Amino acid sequence: MTNPAQPQSFEEFWPFYVREHSNKANRLIHVAGTTVALAIVAYAAVKRKPKALLLAPLVGYGFAWFGHFFVQKNMPATFKHPLWSFRGDMRMVAKTLAGTMDEEVRRVLEEYAANANGATGATEQDEPAAQSAAPAPQSTSSSGGLN
Fold it and tell me: Is residue 5 part of a domain?
């Protein structure tokens, strides 16, 4: 991806999304918020209470923004990429429930560190220092749907 602020596809956006959710506690807060929000949508549909739908985004975004501001300590990208962020949330929830999200975070962070090493001309001797600096970039951009 040439410009991380302007991904051209969801697949380009996904690694950014994963890095912005590298803190496991933040991911679990997101999963809880998304799950409750989806339960509210289901309740509203089953009970035919459309006003209850107003509560779903408040709960979903409330949990997610708490996770970003107080746990991950970064800014959510909801306003820049709302649809991709929502899709990222759904993928993250699915991968969390499947037990594969931690490995996905590890993979993305390793790839990010390797790319950072290549961009700076780091050698194998420099790799551990570069990896420890790369895993959790604290962006000021936002990052996610119900994030």
Answer: no
Q: What is the pLDDT of residues 51-101, one digit of tens each?
A: 999 999 999 999 999 999 999 999 998 878 999 999 999 999 999 999 999
Asked whether 53 and 39 are in contact (CB, 8 A), the reply is no
- Give how many domains the chain has, as a whole number: 1
Please write the tens of the pLDDT for every residue from 117-138: 876 554 444 443 333 334 444 4
The residue with tokens 């961009």 is: 119
Instruction: Give me the domain span that covers residue 89.
Output: 12-133
Tokens coding 91:
């993928």
